[in-house]
Design a protein that fits this description.
Elements lengths: L1 H17 L2 H18 L4 H14 L3 H10 L4 H13 L3 H14 L5 H18 L2 H18 L2 H17 L3 H17 L3 H17 L3 H18 L2 H17 L9 H11 L4 H8 L3 H15 L4 H10 L4
Helix pairs in contact: 1-2, 1-3, 2-3, 3-4, 3-5, 4-5, 5-6, 5-7, 6-7, 7-8, 7-9, 8-9, 9-10, 9-11, 10-11, 11-12, 12-13, 14-16, 14-17, 15-16, 16-17
């Protein structure tokens, strides 16, 4: 019976991945209750997965308590790292991901993959591109070695996160497109929706707001369908943000050009604008040349005045 309960806990983890959350919760609660009687030391195997379900449901306080109660379980470290990222604590996420990887044997490549993806995301958020790249290289190696759609999706997603953090929006777009497709193929709706949200960020950065809104709205629908109401609400808010940032329909300028011109109006130099938007100075020069042409102006100050007159910025 112990083996049966242990297998059911693993099965519940698969149900979580598949987005069948109501059935997963039922399995986990039953497993935990029964294991508490026949094998108390193994209760954490079911309980830690319940914590992951709570995290995906947006119930972060409950998830944190569960992960802390099952702190000796390896998945608890990953869960706490995810909660840290959900709450904007990239340093905390990095520390827990690194601890998980220190304890994961080098030969256990599939076990390491989850920690590696987390570490890429955390290091990218911290701004440590060198270490993020090193973690991504190991994850890419694992994905090529194992070559399953979920691992390939994970590697694509991590590559997109790093590309977006370094301002390479075209590479981020293609990486997130691949991740979305592979997660869908793997039957992982939560991960697929997360990839679509990041794809929307990349598209918005490329001044493709309409496409970004479409992707994030689709992600919100998928999240709401599986019970991830909190994530769905955040996706809806992001769609509103993209819509608000879009220039007027009759605007001759793209969103990025409007953004550049607003920063010019605030007195920023091209170097400062490039740093703030994570772009090259050459790209800023090109945007300004396009702006001057579209607004038929001879100088930056004249372009700012014309854009204000036409309510473009």
């Amino acid at each position: 019976e112990f083996l049966n309960r242990s297998c059911r806990a693993t099965y519940a983890g698969i149900l979580i991945l598949r987005g069948t959350w109501e059935k997963a919760e039922q399995e986990l609660v039953e497993c935990a209750d029964r294991l508490a009687t026949i094998r108390p030391l193994m209760v954490a195997d079911a309980t830690v997965r319940l914590g992951e379900l709570r995290r995906r449901q947006g119930r972060l306080e409950e998830a944190t308590k569960i992960f802390e109660q099952t702190a000796e379980h390896p998945l608890a470290l990953l869960g706490l790292a995810e909660v840290c990222l959900d709450q904007g604590d990239a340093v905390g996420a990095r520390d827990r991901a690194e601890q998980y990887l220190r304890e994961a044997p080098p030969h256990a490549v599939t076990l390491r993959s989850a920690g590696l993806e987390l570490l890429v995301r955390a290091q990218a958020a911290v701004g440590d591109q060198l270490r993020a790249t090193a973690a991504l290289e190991e994850l890419d190696w694992v994905a090529k070695l194992v070559a399953t759609p979920p691992l390939r999706a994970s590697a694509c997603f991590a590559a997109g996160v790093l590309a977006l953090a370094t301002g390479d929006r075209d590479r981020a777009r293609t990486s997130f497109e691949d991740a979305t497709r592979l997660f869908h193929r793997s039957g992982a709706p939560f991960e697929a929706a997360r990839a679509r949200i990041e794809l929307a960020r990349a598209l918005a950065g490329l001044s493709r707001e309409a496409d970004a809104v479409r992707e994030v709205r689709a992600a919100a629908t998928s999240l709401r369908r599986i019970g991830a109401a909190a994530e769905a609400s955040r996706a809806d808010a992001l769609a509103v943000e993209f819509e608000r940032e879009s220039p007027p329909e009759d605007s001759p300028l793209t969103r990025r050009e409007c953004e550049v011109l607003r920063l010019v109006a605030d007195g920023n130099s091209d170097r400062s604008i490039a740093a703030q938007l994570v772009l090259s100075e050459h790209t800023i020069h090109r945007h300004m040349a396009n702006i001057l042409t579209k607004l038929d102006c001879a100088s930056r100050s004249a372009a700012v005045a014309e854009a204000i007159r036409r309510s473009l910025i």
